[in-house]
Amino acid sequence: MTVEYAVPCAAALDSNLDNKAALIAGTEQVMSAFLCAVQRRLGPEAARRAAGYWIEAFEAATWNCGQAGLALKRITIAAASRLAQETAATRLTGQPS
Fold first, then answer.
1. What are the residue boundaries of the structural domains of the chain, listed by start?
2. Stretch 44-60: mean pLDDT, rounded?
3. I need a labelling partner for 58 at 20 to 30 A (CA). Which of 18, 25, 74, 75 fits?
4. What average pLDDT does range 75-96 have in this prediction?
C-alpha cells in the first residue's frame, strides 16, 4: 500500500499548524520504515549510516507544492542507493568505503 502525503504551498504551511504536523508525521513514518527495513536486513550499524544518508538527502531535497510523497520517495531512493553502493564496495574490497 502506498501512502501519499499532500503538502500545501509554503504560504498555507505558515498559517496552518495542522499541515505542518501532517508533514512532520509523514516524514517520520517514511524515514522510520526505511531505517527499520535496513536494520532488519543489514543490522544496526548500516541503519545508522542509512539515517545519515537519508537526512543528507532530505536536507538537499527541493519541495514542490503538493508533492511531498514524491519528494520523500526520492529521498529514500537516494539514501538506499548510497547505502547499496557502499555495501557493494565493502563486499568487493573487504574495506569500508
1. 10-93
2. 96
3. 18
4. 88
